[in-house]
Amino acid sequence: MNIRLAKGSSQPLYIQLFEQLKELIEQGILPEDYKLPTIRELGRELNVNNITVVNAYKLLEDHKLIYKKVGSGSYVLPIEENLIINNAVSNEDDRQEYDYNTEEGYIDFATASPDPRLFPMTDFKKAINDVIERDGGNAFMYHDSRGYLPLRSSIADYLSKKEIEVGPEDVYIISGAQQGIDIIAKALLTNGDYVFVESPTYTGAAAVFKSRGARIVEIPLQSDGPDMNELEKLLQVIKPKFMYTMPNFQNPTGCSYSERKKKHLLLLCKKYKLLIVEDDYSGDLSYKEKPATPLKSYDNADSVIYIKSFSKIFMPGLRVAFLIIPEPIKKMIESAKYMTDISTSGFMQRVLDLYLNRNILDEHIRYMKKEYGLRYFEAVRAAKKYLRGALFSQPYGGLNLWIRLPEGIDSSKLYERCKKNMVLITPGTVFLKGEEGEQHMRISFSGVDVLDITKGIAIVGNTIEEMKKESRIGGA
Amino acid sequence: MNIRLAKGSSQPLYIQLFEQLKELIEQGILPEDYKLPTIRELGRELNVNNITVVNAYKLLEDHKLIYKKVGSGSYVLPIEENLIINNAVSNEDDRQEYDYNTEEGYIDFATASPDPRLFPMTDFKKAINDVIERDGGNAFMYHDSRGYLPLRSSIADYLSKKEIEVGPEDVYIISGAQQGIDIIAKALLTNGDYVFVESPTYTGAAAVFKSRGARIVEIPLQSDGPDMNELEKLLQVIKPKFMYTMPNFQNPTGCSYSERKKKHLLLLCKKYKLLIVEDDYSGDLSYKEKPATPLKSYDNADSVIYIKSFSKIFMPGLRVAFLIIPEPIKKMIESAKYMTDISTSGFMQRVLDLYLNRNILDEHIRYMKKEYGLRYFEAVRAAKKYLRGALFSQPYGGLNLWIRLPEGIDSSKLYERCKKNMVLITPGTVFLKGEEGEQHMRISFSGVDVLDITKGIAIVGNTIEEMKKESRIGGA
After folding, report:
1. How high is the pLDDT of residue B91?
2. Is domain B141-359 in CATH 3.40.640.10, yes or no?
3. Closest Cβ opposite residue B132 in set A113, A117, A121
4. Which of A330, A432, B249, B404 has its CA 20 to 30 A from that of B460?
5. pTM (2 d.p.)
6. pLDDT of residue A116
């Protein structure tokens, strides 16, 4: 292996080793299931202490890049399996290091909101004033229901970087992703229509479909995407108007579809004339080197309506998002948008357009990814440490951890208890009926700063331990 | 009569006389049907030339403040009858004074848009920057679905000036009036429900109700409001979910409900448990001294949902409006709003709040009323002059004239012909099916400046005359 460690560097040797191995794995130079050298072999080869290699391998394991086989050694983890369920191990000694019942208000893991301190207010203020200066009152007129044409062009250009090839005529501006869901429902659904959704799914979407009188059919999610057998069985007997999906960093599970399942899904689209709605609400927020690939980028048959919001990567207060609309339904979408609110604020559209053209957005997304990445890794670290007996997947992206609670802990009771301890979580019952709901909670880490993440998850862990004890006493 | 004319003033004597008489009439000092002095009597009394009195009376008549009885003299016109149908008389000699087929683009009477040159950009820019300075990134977070609380309070205060007594808890912020209609439909309508609307009505509302699967029942409009007999007959056999109304300066007719009918309607609400949706889209734009009274201000039984937009009186690009919601349906409205777009831009809400607190808005409305008033009076003048044989009411407010075309002129053909002559009108067929639609056109004057109003209406008049001639030749 081509590894060079700089012994005089300020960066510890094990970090250097970790980073270089990480790159070799992510570039595919070390392929999936490749057996790594043993600790001793590599220590000798690099002329470093064994503990350096142990620490580097430990970090790789924590980052879900390698896995251990007992008595056999360490192997490169296949990408598809990055999302396997992990058994969280807790170190009880650490759980008391934070005292809770803070007076400063709640630690809020319930809202998947960005942190306002991360917003680029200086650049944004400048863009606002530049637009007022340039366009005057025209910026505040009614705008085309489809959106402000220069912005539609800028977005088309922007998308070509993500390998989505569309023209301005395919891009429709909307006032946030939620409105996109509402408009699609208005354009396509009438009473009694079928809609397929992932199970669990974003409740704000399901509510819209139900409000149009649609019948919801739930497709079970596996760690790498929908259960394709179940989906195809259903498609053989039911013709849904569309299937609503979040193929990357799904809400609430954090699950991403494997590349294989993405392609498989598009084959089913052709076979059954299935229309997909892809809600790419946080696809930009990948904490691996490799960005997440939108389903839309594989779509060569106009099978996918693509919804993209700037709320998570920029600012929710912008209230600007966009749709990419397949040709046959453009007219219907335009008239549904008009009925909904005539047009999205032309002023905000112009400001965003300026932003895109100045390439400030990409720079800002890199910054957000870095900041949210720190929070993500801290949330994972804290969950492993403090949530004894809980199970969770590591999405390496997005805004949420979806955590299976230890046996016997009900998420709705845990929610109440944590709230008393000034920590807000989302109980799984919000997303799933019955036992499955009671067994899960969602932790949204994006709006909480790193110290509070540790503190908050420690509180949740302590609360769980208290509940366990009480149930042992109660059961005795 | 207590009239004093200043002979040395720069203002012509007949204008002074007109204004003072206008005030006496509007204050009710000269009551309805009061017989004015004859020309000679008043000329002698004021020691002015008869022609001064003739001109002043002419202006009063043009402003629909007095009416003439042949051989009897001039009388104060009862307010209720301000809206009677007028026979437009044209002076053929003037019709050629404008040449058309201008190269500069269309004269657009089809869009009821404000003129962006009237927007208060300097004040607005300041308010924007003050909000960014004060609130930073928090201004761009998600906001409460019901709206930003300080704005809800400011609006409640603002409404008390209009004799609508509500608290902040009754005010719900929305992204424009169209969204209000959409949200109300989402909260209240399911497949097969009945909705009553005025006939003709705003098509953008009817489309939303139909999209929810509602059955639309049309209530004929008279010059002073709905046909109350017809309405009550229908209420005896049908229970609608609500009746959608525009009680002041109705779109497209310009008609306002008489105070009597407003009160009558609220009695029917109690008797039949009827819920009213009042869309007050341009009630502030009264070109008489007396402001238009919202139906909501008479509502003491929570019978009226009130929708108010800032698009017409401020800037459409603001995309902020509000609802006043009766207690029993608040929860449903809140959840429908969440489904629609989560929340309205908190940033724009904060800017508008600053505006309301600085009392800049009222000042701006006064300015808009003055500017639009000039356009209104010019549109009426030009219509009387150039549209021979057309009939129209004088709404003294709002943004539109609703004009009945001379016998034999089809509005859809007129629309096509005018478009070729670079003038856009809205044919009545957009609002009404069959003959009634063909017989009317809507002229929206708010977005066109005074010179172009005269020019544009002259072109419409000429086009009508051409069509008349052709049909005479064709018929010969």
Report:
1. 32
2. yes
3. A121
4. B249
5. 0.77
6. 86
